[in-house]
Amino acid sequence: MAENAANPVDDDAEDAPGLRKIIHVDMDAFFASVEQRDNPELRGKPVAVGGSSGRGVVAAASYEARQFGVKSAMPSVTAKRKCPDLIFVKSRFDAYREVSAQIREIFQFHTPHVEPLSLDEAFLDVTEDIHGIGSATAIAQAIRKAIRETTQLTASAGVSYNKFLAKLASDQNKPDGLCVIRPGQGAEFVQSLPIRRFHGIGPKGAEKMARLGIETGADLAGKDPQWLRANFGSFGDYLFKAARGIDHRPVRANRIRKSIGGERTFSEDISSGSALRETLDNIIEIVWGRIADKQAKGRTVTLKVKFNDFQIMTRARSLDAPVTDRAQFAAIAHEILEAELPLAMPIRLMGLTLSNLERGESSAPRDDPQLSLL
């Protein structure tokens, strides 16, 4: 187990009055780890969950595969080129949901205030220590231990006084790690990070910031709100608070979800019909996986593109009855795209969502300000 050695456990500091105690738990390479657990022949080898065909996409990658630069949402052909020995396995969402349910039971034992972000991660508010364990850090340790004993899988956790910091912390010592950011440490921790670590800042955003002289959280903290709004619009308000470790959002259990989707920002603009269709297929693969995760049913499919001049176009198709399967979802998405071809100019981003969801689909949306596949 890796821990943040610079921050030894200090329960008095952690328990300062008036502050929330938030844990973010994130399973390590979840889909791939389940496959390696269930198939011993895959252990220690580079594994990708997803399709291996020319238009397939990586849904998850083991840590052995990540060492070669293989990432989720990467086209399978690119992943295979980076790692010739990569082993592809088909996704088994029933198995992942079963493990996720076991993990949720562990969360619920410690607090009713659980905000799931996906099958493999969630926020927990443990301000009330219902079992008298002693501290949020000790609760996080107990949760990770229970997950390992119950599922034979590892989880990383971040502990802090708000959601933004807890999520950053959970990624700090992966895999199988624990990091604690205590009151008074948030701004210093955030300002020590490269700007790419900030939620919602993708490759293009990081490039723009670098051109403006912003490469670290400290650089960002040096900009005033007016400058940030002038250069980043309303996103500037988020950046100003993020650079100071400020986040007042509560953990919201059973929040009603309005849509499920994802988007991809490209390293290079694309415009040809074949490239657009292949990209859409990759996005469909990822988004339908999320829809299946939540067993969601919706009646509106929306395609979003951002042109290289930053103008955004959205086109939607609504049905009288909910979308029933991946084939129907894919067909509708492609119909929307084909109706707009050829596009007026190259695009730098494409996104796809299912909305107009049936009542009863209750789970928190993903936490990042910009939901990205990359």
From TrEMBL:
Keywords for the protein's UniProt record, in alphabetical order:
Cytoplasm, DNA damage, DNA repair, DNA replication, DNA-binding, DNA-directed DNA polymerase, Magnesium, Metal-binding, Mutator protein, Nucleotidyltransferase, Transferase
Q: Which cofactor does it need?
A: Mg(2+)
Tell me where in this chain the UmuC domain is found. Answer: 22-202
Q: Where is this site: Substrate discrimination?
A: F31
Database matches in HAMAP family:
DNApol_IV
Q: What does this protein do?
A: Poorly processive, error-prone DNA polymerase involved in untargeted mutagenesis. Copies undamaged DNA at stalled replication forks, which arise in vivo from mismatched or misaligned primer ends. These misaligned primers can be extended by PolIV. Exhibits no 3'-5' exonuclease (proofreading) activity. May be involved in translesional synthesis, in conjunction with the beta clamp from PolIII.
Q: Under which name does UniProt file this protein? A: DNA polymerase IV
Naturally occurring in which organism (per UniProt): Aurantiacibacter sediminis
